[in-house]
UniProtKB/TrEMBL annotation:
<keyword id="KW-0732">Signal</keyword>
<feature type="signal peptide">
    <location>
        <begin position="1"/>
        <end position="20"/>
    </location>
</feature>
<protein>
    <recommendedName>
        <fullName>Glycine zipper domain-containing protein</fullName>
    </recommendedName>
</protein>
Length: 122
C-alpha cells in the first residue's frame, strides 16, 4: 500500500469519527418541557450511555479482512500490503462501529424521553 493510500485512509478514519451524533447534543422538544424533563433526561441519558450494539469486534475484523485482501492485491510486496491494509481496514471498521453506536445511543435517548411522555423530536 502506498504512502498516499495510507494517508487517504487515515483521513477517512478521522472524518468518520468527526461525523458521529453524540448523545450529549441538546434535545429538540416540540413545545415546552415539563417539570420532570431534567430528571427523566438524567435517567434516559444514563441508559443511552451504557448502550452497546455488540458488533465492535466483528466490524473491525471484517474491515481488517477486506483491507488485507485489497492491500495484498494493490501493493508490490503482498505481505506488506496485506498488513497495512489489515491495519487500515480494522481502523475504518472500528470507526464505523463507533459512529453506529453513537447514532444508536442518540436514538435510545430520544425514544426513552418519548416513552416518558416528552415531545422530543430530535
Amino acid at each position: 500500500m502506498t504512502h498516499n493510500a495510507l494517508t487517504l485512509s487515515l483521513i477517512a478514519v478521522i472524518t468518520l469519527g468527526a461525523c458521529t451524533a453524540p448523545v450529549d447534543r441538546p434535545l429538540t422538544v416540540d413545545g415546552t418541557r415539563n417539570a420532570n424533563f431534567d430528571h427523566d433526561y438524567t435517567a434516559c441519558h444514563a441508559q443511552a450511555a451504557s448502550f452497546t450494539n455488540g458488533a465492535g469486534a466483528e466490524t473491525a475484523a471484517t474491515g481488517a479482512l477486506v483491507g488485507a485482501a485489497i492491500g495484498a492485491v494493490d501493493a508490490e510486496d503482498e505481505l506488506e500490503g496485506a498488513l497495512a491494509g489489515a491495519a487500515i481496514g480494522g481502523l475504518v471498521g472500528a470507526a464505523e462501529n463507533a459512529s453506529s453506536v453513537e447514532d444508536e445511543r442518540r436514538n435510545v435517548l430520544i425514544r426513552c424521553m418519548q416513552n416518558r411522555g416528552h415531545d422530543v423530536i430530535g
